Amino acid sequence: MKYHNKILIICWCIICFSCNKPPQPENIRHIKVEFEDKSIESSSFLNEHKEISLSTPSNDAVIGSIERLLFSKNKIFIMDRGGNKVLMFDEKGNFLKSTAKMVGKGHNEYLRVIDAAIDNKNQKLYVHCDAPYQIMVFDLDLNLERIISLDFYMTEIAIDKQFLYGICIDSKNDSGYELIAIDKKHLKEKPRTIYSCTNFVSGRMTLGKSLTSFKDKVYASLPFDNRICVIQNGEIKTEYKIDFGNKGLDEHPIKKGINPRWFDKQYEDINWSIVNICNSDSILIFRTNKATNFIINKNTGICKAYESIHYENVPFSNSHIIPSEGTQNTLIYSVDYSVIDYTLKYAKEKNITVDSSVYEFAHKLNPDGNPMLIVWDIK
Q1: Are 376 and 47 contacting, i.e. CB atoms less than 8 angstroms apart?
Q2: Which of 43, 57, 179, 331 has the most neighbouring CB atoms within 10 Å?
Q3: Phi, psi of 60, rounded to the nearest 5 degrees
Q4: What letter does residue 171 receive in the DSSP assignment?
Q5: Phi, psi at residue 15, to the nearest 5°?
Q6: How many domains does the chain have?
Q7: Sign of CA dihedral 111, 134, 324, 310
Q8: Beta bridge partners of 51
Q9: What are phi and psi of 358, to 5 degrees?
Q10: Distance from C-alpha of 96 to C-alpha of 61, rounded to nearest angstrom
Q11: Are 56 and 95 a contacting pair, CB within 8 Å?
Q12: Which domain holds residue 145?
């Protein structure tokens, strides 16, 4: 009898271990980065582009910062954390509406907007706010439908067909980060952890977004991690393990409890966080805490790092690629008039001849208005 009890206990332990073990991805791809000390020409991977001037008819339309772009069939939604609102434009850039008047402590209001995600299939826009923690669900005319109260905070959110995903501080260790998933139909339920990373440096983050969706999948990379996980319906389908060589965390692991100032000094040249993932059917583009553009060929697995992207046929560019959802095979950045104005003044001061295309481009922008979106088609 005792023998049988021991067998049962052993079997039960095996079952428990299997249940607690994090799910393994179906496909692990080891990606070795090849660093190129040069720029890459946009014509090598981009086709044509279009320009979308974002109108500024009122104060509600003024954009503080573009953190994320969300596209529906004929609308553009802008996640503007700097301006504490979500803005809606039509496909030509005409301002339609914003959530600016919803800021407050009253009923159906928020104090701070954190992130937004779009569900084009069900025609919904999900907006995460804090103080208090909540998800505000809008239709695609930016009309509020409902509010779901939460007892946890997410730094970012993204959506696939079934789940809403978020990046949180690891709830078990109170250190490190975890990616969680909640069924969109049951947002009040306890979230499930998809995967986690114990690396953590107090007060240190990279500007940009670590979560984005492409078609029916979500691409995620936690802070202080060198993985990009491709997630679908709550499961990791593919994992890209990025090997940065002597410029990455594999050769420079982060010690627990590291002093932030010491970290800044020792990790100045190390790629320690992956952000602003841009997707197409053929390539995957991302940046890190370093001002470098990484391009992975999805077919070959070859990854090359470039100092910058030289955008041909456009007089002005921006190395900051905006995380975008609801589009297919596009790369988007913005151009602000202040950059053009500075360039023209500098050229005049130094007596530098400026091409006529620069002046033509400048006339397309309102000096006191919103930036212009440059939307490229990826080959």
Answers
A1: yes
A2: 179
A3: -65, -20
A4: T
A5: -65, -45
A6: 1
A7: positive
A8: 374
A9: -65, -45
A10: 8
A11: yes
A12: 25-378
Residue 136 lies in a domain: yes
Parallel, antiparallel or unpaired: strands 303-306 and 27-35? parallel
Residue 6 lies in a domain: no
pLDDT tens-place values along the chain, 379 residues long = 444 444 444 444 433 433 334 456 669 999 999 999 999 999 999 999 999 999 999 999 999 999 999 999 999 999 999 999 999 999 999 999 999 999 999 999 999 999 999 999 999 999 999 988 999 999 999 999 999 999 999 999 999 999 999 999 887 766 799 999 999 999 999 999 999 999 999 999 999 999 999 999 999 999 999 999 999 999 999 999 999 999 999 999 999 999 999 999 999 999 999 999 999 999 999 999 998 999 999 999 999 999 999 998 888 888 899 999 999 899 999 999 998 899 899 999 999 998 888 888 888 898 999 999 999 999 9
C-alpha 142/C-alpha 124 separation (Å) is: 9
Residue type, 334: S
Nearest to 242 by CA among 264, 224, 259: 224
Is residue 2 situated within a structural domain?
no
